[in-house]
Write a structure and sequence with these properties.
Layout (H helix, E strand, L loop, with lengths): L8 E2 L5 E5 L2 E6 L2 E6 L4 E6 L2 E6 L4 H23 L1 E8 L4 E5 L2 E5 L6 E4 L4 E7 L2 E6 L2 H12 L11 E4 L15
Antiparallel strand pairs: 1-6, 2-3, 3-4, 5-6, 7-12, 7-13, 8-9, 9-10, 11-12
């Protein structure tokens, strides 16, 4: 049995969960999430807890057991609390602002970078150089943050780029001149 998979999932009182056949629908104050699960995974609801199990214990099913337990837990946390990723723009003249459903970044290119914000994701510019990205779907949030970061990944010589909050860049010494 999977160590992660056998842990019970506590369902918050503000969240409504519906399990039918191979479909899990979770509704909360921040939105609705839906996921299809494989037939080898079974879900039991007991007094405010969810217990995820497998029908037969093969090596592949044990891996799916822990995976789907974590995915369902992330769905519950997302619709009740939301996930937040903070990005910091580090560099001279790097700025961000939100215009309608688009994120506009000035990253030292000859043109501003426009990135469409997908449905279900909120972007808030705290200062000109700090972005708070919120969503109830952890997977979509991570993909969008990585897409934004890919326009200027951090570089080790000057430390410029788009960084996750708290990320440390290992700085390299530049090349030494002739003596």
């Amino acid at each position: 049995m999977s160590r992660i998979g056998k842990l019970p999932i506590k369902v918050p009182t503000t969240v409504d969960i519906n399990v039918t056949d191979n479909n899990v629908v979770v509704k909360g104050k921040f939105g609705t999430l839906e996921r299809t699960i494989p037939e080898v995974i079974r879900i039991e609801q007991t007094d405010g807890n969810l217990i995820v199990g497998v029908t037969n214990e093969t090596r592949a099913n044990k891996a799916l057991h822990g995976l789907y337990r974590t995915l369902i837990n992330n769905m519950l946390v997302g619709v009740s609390e939301q996930f937040i990723i903070t990005l910091v723009l580090q560099g001279v003249g790097y700025r961000a602002n939100v215009q309608a459903k688009s994120l506009v970044l000035s990253l030292g290119y000859s043109h501003p970078v426009n990135i469409d914000i997908p449905d279900g994701i909120e972007v808030e510019v705290v200062q000109n150089t700090t972005l708070n990205i919120k969503a109830c779907d952890k997977e979509q949030l991570g993909l969008f943050a990585a897409k934004v970061r890919s326009w200027r990944p951090p570089e080790p010589y000057k430390g410029k780029g788009i960084l996750y909050k708290g990320e440390k860049i290992l700085r390299k010494a530049g090349k030494s001149g002739k003596k």
